[in-house]
Design brief:
The protein is α+β, with helices and mostly antiparallel strands and 180 residues long. It is 14% helix and 31% strand.
């Protein structure tokens, strides 16, 4: 009887630990961000919270200044133009722009500043996307991508905010980034 109970307790602990790991992975996403030449220049991580999704981006090797950052609707990053990433993620059919009365797209984000040395660090709370199932999930059938543009977003012009060429892209995948 004690042995049977011991096996049941161990099975329960194993189930809970696997459930916790898989639940943890369900609540995270990441992307390796590549430039037009295919070189990895940074990473993005996404973490679900009770208030939304925290997106953190770290990049090196970009031009100095403000750059539009968007979540795009297709999980493909074929360079050099990254048009394979499709339009902005917009499951609720809004208009583009954080300052647009009829917007924003779920994938519209604030601009990122890149320093003179080419490094940029960015963190923002997103309340228009989810990492779990549902209409606003970025893990839909064709996935999603993080795209960095050449210039700042004007936050009103539909559909792209006059943000210039796509200069970097990363396919968002489920789970935390692997440690090197």
């Amino acid at each position: 009887m004690n042995r049977k109970r011991h096996v049941m307790v161990l099975a329960g602990i194993l189930f809970l630990s696997l459930h916790t790991v898989s639940g943890h992975a369900q609540n995270r996403g990441h992307a390796d961000i590549k430039n037009a030449e295919g070189k990895t220049i940074g990473t993005a991580s996404l973490r679900g919270t009770k208030d939304g999704v925290v997106l953190t981006i770290n990049v090196n090797g970009l031009p100095e200044g403000l750059h539009a950052v968007h979540v795009h609707s297709v999980g493909k990053c074929e360079g050099p133009a990254f048009t394979s990433a499709g339009p902005h993620f917009n499951p609720l059919n809004k208009k583009h722009g954080l300052e647009n009365a009829a917007g924003p797209h779920a994938g519209d984000l604030p601009d990122m500043y890149v320093e003179k040395n080419g490094a940029g660090r960015y963190e923002v709370l997103l309340d228009g996307i989810t990492l779990g199932p549902g209409e606003t999930s970025i893990f839909d059938a064709d996935g999603s991508a993080i795209v960095i543009h050449m210039t700042a977003d004007d936050n009103v012009t539909d559909p792209t905010g006059n943000s210039g060429d796509r200069i970097a892209c990363g396919v968002i995948t489920r789970g935390a980034a692997k440690k090197m």
